[in-house]
């Protein structure tokens, strides 16, 4: 559905690194892992066609995404950004409604159906009773859920989410990951930039490791989530434990492991 | 906040506020036409408008008061719409049409022609050229070598504006004293120089029509450049359109009425506090409310201390500042 073809993302003052070639197929959930500054967000934006690659291409259903009209892209692909604070005052419902924008012609106004889709998305993210609140009055976690509700009302086939669990309490983290898994079951392709290795281990089928020098490797989650590789990635000692067949990673500190 | 009404669907939510503003517009126009050194009663106005009435009244209405009132309406509407557009472009609810230095450029143009003793038409023409030079300079410089962000555009505009400010001070300092009052009135914004209302009204109408189908894209852009691009908006093209439209609107307003302050800042902001942030409603509402405010301000300007006249810009500031502060205080 979405494919990287010899893709090299454009990060200033960095050598090219590994050209990325992979395809995100319907139903797959990809996790992008890497330390701060490795280029996870840049990769996500490049995959969304919001940034030009240094070389190579991103193809959406076989066409170079840079050649598609933004509106065509937006009808298939939703992006959840990391910072949702920017912008003008708006209410929660108005914000969820803009997810319908790619589907409404310039001369039309939102239909009752669009309103129903946006409302359902808000309900799903437990924001239904906040629909008239201004975004500026929301908590960080509520804003994050609103960003996901906006993407949900965009009814995308592809989700590109930058740390979707940011600011969320544990219950809502699980809820969001379940929602994304449900979308994957409904044949959506999903790409997540994640910091939480345990979320990656629990929810992702494929993992892409992105190193600060531009090197990268990707494969099935089972193969990729090996303690030595992750320790090298983050330059941080880790302990891996298995409980109920599920693997967990715990970062170790020299202060209390000694 | 009144924005809650969006939930009832867009159209019914638009009709009431726009009807009220349209009525307000007619009321201020009627007031502007009937008030003055010779007052005209509503009955007499009706006679004049239906083709009868006394010749003196006809001359007053059709040759003096109506053109001036329509000019005020046009200029006010242009400024308010330009302000509303700039606020979306810069994602800053406190941006105004002059923030990017357009009024400064226009003022330098206008004052130069006044210094050279050129005709009123030349003053208007050079004000327009000055405004456009400023708009292109700011846009070109802010565009620079790569991405332009609202912050960069804003900073460039502010610096260019203070540059124009220095040039204006210099020109005032070296001007012969008999020219100073005219120059100061122009700088404060004054409709005594307004010639024909039609350019302002036509530009206001045209740009409002062009902006009509872009309203929802503007709402999306108000959420940020990246978010807008991700939702299918061609951000670069839309930003260019807004910038050019706002610059033209401002340039025509300044040519019509000099640099009237506060209308472009306060009217869209007040409307947002009351009506919410849907640009499809805010833009036409700004055209009507801005027009009505300046018509009213100009009527007061020429009657308050008659036979002397005040610059309309003084009145817009006197009306606008306290109203704005009150609304801001009340809103949170």
UniProtKB/TrEMBL annotation, chain A:
InterPro entries: AAA+_ATPase (IPR003593), ABC_transporter-like_ATP-bd (IPR003439), ABC_transporter-like_CS (IPR017871), P-loop_NTPase (IPR027417). Keywords: ATP-binding, Nucleotide-binding. PROSITE patterns: ABC_TRANSPORTER_1, ABC_TRANSPORTER_2. Residues 2-237 form the ABC transporter domain. CDD domains: ABC_Iron-Siderophores_B12_Hemin. The keyword ATP-binding applies. SUPFAM superfamilies: P-loop containing nucleoside triphosphate hydrolases. SMART domains: AAA. GO terms for molecular function: ATP binding; ATP hydrolysis activity. PANTHER family: ABC TRANSPORTER ATP-BINDING PROTEIN, HEMIN IMPORT ATP-BINDING PROTEIN HMUV. This is Iron complex transport system ATP-binding protein. It comes from Zhongshania antarctica. The lineage of its organism: Bacteria, Pseudomonadati, Pseudomonadota, Gammaproteobacteria, Cellvibrionales.
UniProtKB/TrEMBL annotation, chain B:
The chain crosses the membrane at residues 69-90, 97-116, 122-141, 153-176, 196-214, 252-274, 309-328. Pfam families: FecCD (PF01032). InterPro entries: ABC_BtuC-like, ABC_transptr_permease_BtuC. GO terms for cellular component: plasma membrane. It is found in: Cell membrane. Keywords: Cell membrane, Membrane, Transmembrane, Transmembrane helix, Transport. It comes from the Bacteria. Belongs to the binding-protein-dependent transport system permease family. FecCD subfamily. This is Iron complex transport system permease protein. It comes from Zhongshania antarctica. The lineage of its organism: Bacteria, Pseudomonadati, Pseudomonadota, Gammaproteobacteria, Cellvibrionales.
